[in-house]
Design goal:
By secondary structure, this protein is α/β, with parallel strands linked by helices. It has two domains: about 250 residues, QueA-like, CATH 3.40.1780.10; about 80 residues, QueA-like (Thrombin, subunit H), CATH 2.40.10.240. About 20% of the residues lie in helices and about 30% in strands. The chain contains eight helices and 17 strands.
Length: about 350
């Protein structure tokens, strides 16, 4: 299986640079993963397509100002760090630019010493591990000196950074947003609950594993970076009950999906857990945890388009993406939404 098999044509003007005014007014492409049938709607009508006998799973992670810019203590050379993962004891995994200026023991000073990074380990692909020295609470320091890191394909400044957070974000720790959730409003969530559909929260701290490009020709040789996740006892209990009652489990976003699949594949049930995953899902993968997926449109040749191709078949996904391009859907983080379902219920009812 080749990485080029997951390429598709995308005009640059379809890459959404800013969010639309109303989160829930984004377009919604509904794809029947079995037949390949397609229907268009708006996201504020998502409840009309959800099976009432289902459970919705959301990733409640919150993006932190993980992009920090400082200077080397000795040469004053500019160094940019993207904080990826908390490893404990003030040790963090980061993506460094330019990495070549750093060596073990290098000190990087941020904002007149509010934060100091000491390089502890250096790896390939720009990855380093540092010890942070600071006074007070780490995330409060980041709030003072850092920026929320937007994806590299977004070139316009975001006027309201809260638009890069879901309305249900609460657990700090991600360097990117779970963008499938950006379409939800509190009103829509209330309507879903009122319809009897349970909403379950999990947490996956989004780091390099989600958005790192595939740089090998053979898909199977790509190595995912690890990301941390948590499933609470309450969430595990609700999900196991849903399985017993043959309810559909609908993941909101690929990060929720990867959390659930990683956990279920280990235990053949859902269990309370705080762990890490480097699960890589591509065609041929057998899903055990989830049934359906609400997602966005993903980059060509990315691990995420491979994931949705595993769920709905590469043929159906590529046809759906061509439809989206031909009909000028908006793509990527601030773009339109997609619901991959077992059947397009509203058409049949």
């Amino acid at each position: 299986m080749k990485t080029d098999d997951f390429d598709y044509y995308l005009p640059l003007d379809l890459v959404a640079q800013t969010p639309i005014t109303d989160r829930s007014s984004s377009r919604l492409l509904i794809l029947d993963k079995n037949t390949g049938d397609i229907k268009e709607d708006r996201f504020f009508n998502i409840l009309e397509y959800l099976d009432k006998n289902s459970v919705l799973v959301i990733n409640n992670t919150k993006v932190v100002p993980a992009r920090i810019i400082g200077e080397k203590e000795d040469t004053k050379a500019k160094i940019e760090l993207l904080i990826l993962k908390d490893l404990g004891s003030n040790i963090y995994e980061c993506l460094a630019k330019p990495q070549r200026r750093l060596k073990i023991g290098t000190k990087v000073i941020f904002k007149d010493g509010l934060l100091v990074a000491i390089v502890k380990e250096i790896f390939d692909e720009g990855i380093i591990r540092v010890e942070f020295i600071y006074q007070g609470i780490f995330y409060e320091v980041l709030d003072r000196i850092g920026e929320v890191p937007l994806p590299p394909y977004i070139h316009k400044k975001l006027d309201n950074i809260d638009r890069y957070q879901t309305v249900y974000s609460k657990i700090k720790g991600s360097s990117a947003a779970p963008t499938a959730g950006l379409h939800f409003t509190n009103e829509i969530l209330t309507k879903i609950r009122d319809a009897g559909i349970e909403i379950v929260e999990v947490t996956l701290s989004i780091g390099l594993g989600t958005f790192r490009p595939v740089q090998v020709e053979d898909v199977e040789k790509h190595k995912m970076h690890t990301e941390s996740y948590t499933i609470s006892p309450i969430s595990a209990a609700i999900l196991n009950r849903a399985k017993r009652e043959n309810k559909k489990i609908v993941a909101v976003g690929t990060t929720s999906l990867r959390t659930l699949e990683a956990n279920y594949q280990k235990y053949n049930e859902f269990r309370e857990e705080t762990s890490e995953t480097s699960i890589f899902i591509y065609p041929g993968y057998k899903f055990k945890a989830i049934d359906e997926l609400i997602t966005n449109f993903h980059l060509p040749k990315s691990t995420l388009i491979m994931l949705v191709s595993a769920l709905a078949s590469k043929e159906n996904i590529m046809n759906a993406y061509k439809y989206a391009v031909d009909n000028k859907f908006r793509f990527f983080s601030f773009g339109d939404s997609m619901y991959i379902t077992n059947k397009i219920r509203k058409i049949e009812e």
